[in-house]
Design a protein that fits this description.
single chain; 664 residues; alpha+beta; 13-stranded mixed sheet; five-stranded antiparallel sheet; 37 strands; 29% helix
């Protein structure tokens, strides 16, 4: 098939010139054809990723041309382009779009084109509604999308059904018609997945979270009314009967410094080189996301990218692959960059702190250059007054959305363990923020919290039963943050229990979400992350205190490799768990160096108490991530025999001890 596609390029050049392409699309399409001429599919992928908005325009224009003159050749010609676009979005939507188009008759293609013309016009109304927050425009957008739904349903166009239903739900959400919104989102999510669009898409995650919240509040996706259902004291919809939803406004603020607020996130530390990181190579264009590449900072609905032009850092705001705003990137010193979307008072704003390392850094025991990395964190927050208290909302997970939670993965560690990447909120005085939570306490009362599209929040007092959690930590250093999250009916409620006092929480089942242990500041910082790992949920009962016993003794797991006449302990596979099964990772800067013992299946000792050692400079130069782990341990063994190994460590400066493993 690939050979046939390349033969078609010259013939399709006539089709391309017949299109109403703008100059960017013409240039893109010429580049695309040139890459196909030399069968450079990697180049096609890069071209599509760097020019996503233009690529979508070209693909849709050529599919429209196909509608006028259907041809398998046309569709085959576009498949490499669709594959490159799918790599950018980590889904299969564009391949599925082509496969779907291939099944339509000429009559169906014409009907689809008319329906999409209505969709395009309605998108303009929707965009204007989002900018102006005009309720009348939102209602007009609903009418426009629903006009298209009948034809799209008849044609089974799942991608654009998902698009229209998601937009309808978004409009209802703004209008606070939550029953209609949950119904629209419920159907949109089914179409979304059927169309091959990723679950990691920000709109899908938003629909999923809102759908869950509204169901918890009593709204039924199958119902047709807009009435909330009052629940008993063990549901998140158990409101005080005399209470009402109250709305509170917040305003955008630029942060004064990256350490203005202390938050629970393990990225929220004073050592710049432990912030989120992206490559900063000359000519590079990279999404502002790390380590979870599916969660890109998107404050204005389009993922932000960082482009390096010489010594300059530029932010691609509109997704066209070109730098729009100069980022203040200064080695060893954080500086804030503010980005605007729109003009005048109504412009949306967002800010980020950026910094690079220097050419002479000391990192995990090695001399290193960090000028080719850029480190970043959110540089803004929203502030208002809620229930008589100062209220601050911090986009601590750098998603670009205030008041959300992302399930992220740590790809440094074996198995890419997950953790909750949370936003933060501060209620009352002080500078130590709590994790963002849909349930929070003011005085003796608990309240439900909703974040609105305009950045404001709504609250309503709850009538719920509560219990208490008290962290009992065994170790050299107590966590500075230990966040637990409710995993049942109050999903979305998070609490930091790292203090020495017990913490009041709604009754329910809780699990470790994320945490950190830290000592010192700046480049003297010592720290370790806490992730859920294998920790099981625990139950908090009404009026009772749950003692959450965590910490030492610690447990190692690791992998060994049989190399014939040698056996190797693969140290980069090493994981560390505390007593409940929560994982301890990213231990900085003092790498764990356990002692290793190895014995054969016949019982003979091949190694006994051999001390672990740091990796060599040569290994470090091959992969700086290996510096987080000790060197691999290799010993000779008789051929044909199998071996088991054990790791032990008496104590660690930050964590305490002891550490041990099973023979494995």
């Amino acid at each position: 098939m690939w050979i046939r596609m390349l033969v078609l390029v010259s013939a399709l050049g006539v089709v391309a010139t017949a299109q109403d392409f703008d100059s960017a699309e013409k240039k893109f399409y010429e580049d695309y054809k040139n890459l196909l001429d030399v069968n450079d599919l990697a180049g096609v992928n890069t071209l599509a990723r760097r020019n996503m908005r233009t690529a979508v325009g070209v693909l849709d224009a050529l599919l429209s041309e196909h509608a006028k003159s259907p041809s398998d050749a046309n569709l085959d010609h576009l498949r490499p382009l669709a594959a490159g676009m799918d790599q950018r979005d980590a889904d299969t939507r564009y391949q599925k779009r082509i496969e779907y188009i291939a099944t339509l008759t000429e009559e169906d293609l014409e009907r689809r084109e008319k329906a999409l013309e209505v969709v395009r016009k309605t998108d303009t109304v929707y965009d204007e509604a989002r900018q102006t927050r005009d309720a009348g425009l939102y209602r007009r957008a609903i009418d426009g999308y629903e006009e298209s739904l009948t034809d799209l349903e008849r044609l089974s166009d799942r991608e654009f059904l998902a698009h229209c239903r998601q937009r309808v739900g978004s409009c209802h959400e703004f209008l606070e018609a939550y029953q209609q919104a949950v119904t629209a989102y419920d159907r949109a999510m089914d179409d979304w997945l059927a169309a091959g669009i990723s679950r990691e898409n920000q709109d899908y995650k938003h629909m999923s979270e809102k759908r869950r919240d509204w169901i918890d509040m009593g709204f039924d996706p199958e119902a047709s009314t807009d009435e909330a259902i009052e629940g008993s004291r063990d549901t998140p919809n158990s409101f005080v009967p005399t209470s009402e939803w109250q709305d509170w406004s917040t305003s955008y603020k630029k942060a004064k410094s990256p350490t203005q607020f202390e938050t629970p996130s393990p990225y929220s530390v004073s050592h710049i080189l432990l912030w989120r990181r992206v490559a900063f190579l000359p000519g590079s264009l990279v999404p502002l996301s790390w380590p979870d590449v599916t969660s890109v900072c998107s404050p204005f609905g389009v993922p932000l990218n960082l482009y390096r032009d010489g010594a300059k850092g530029l932010i691609d705001v509109d997704g066209d692959g070109e730098g729009d705003v100069e980022a203040k990137v200064i080695a060893n010193k954080a500086s804030v960059t503010e980005i605007s979307n729109g003009k005048g008072r109504d412009a949306e704003k967002y800010a980020l702190f950026f910094a690079t390392g220097s050419a002479t850094e000391r990192w995990l025991g090695f001399n290193s250059r960090f000028t080719e990395n850029c480190y970043f964190r959110s540089g803004c927050y929203r502030e208002g007054k809620v229930l008589g208290q100062k209220f601050i909302l911090i986009d601590d997970n750098c998603s670009g959305i205030f008041g959300d939670v992302r399930e992220s993965s740590d790809f440094l560690l074996n198995g890419a363990p997950q953790f909750a990447d949370l936003d933060a909120m501060l209620v009352g005085k002080g500078s130590k923020a709590a994790p963002f939570s849909t349930v929070f306490q003011v005085g003796d009362a608990f309240h439900r919290l909703r974040v609105k599209n305009d950045g404001g929040v709504s609250t309503r007092e709850l009538a719920i039963d509560t219990g208490f959690v008290k962290l009992e930590w065994e170790g050299a250093r107590r966590p500075s943050a230990l966040v637990i999250g409710e995993v049942g009916k109050f999903q979305g409620a998070y609490f930091d229990v790292s203090g020495k006092d017990e913490v009041e929480v709604p009754v329910g089942r809780y699990k470790v979400a994320v945490g950190k242990i830290e000592k010192g500041k700046g480049r003297s910082l010592e720290m370790a992350w806490i992730m859920p790992g294998e920790a099981e949920p625990f139950e908090v009962k009404a009026g009772e205190t749950y003692s959450l016993e965590m910490g030492a003794p610690f447990r190692f797991t690791f992998e060994t490799r049989d190399l014939g006449n040698e056996v190797m302990v693969d140290s980069s596979s090493m994981l560390v768990y505390e007593k409940t099964g929560a994982m301890i990772g990213r231990i900085f800067p003092n790498v764990l160096l356990p002692e290793v013992a190895i014995k054969s299946d016949s019982g003979s000792t091949l190694a006994k108490g051999e001390k672990g050692r740091l990796i060599s400079q040569e290994v470090y130069l091959q992969s700086i991530d290996r510096a987080w782990f000790p060197a691999d341990f290799v010993v000779s063994k008789p051929g044909g025999t199998s071996c088991t190994a054990q790791m032990t460590l008496k104590s660690h400066k930050l964590l305490g001890g002891p550490f041990t493993s099973e023979w494995q």
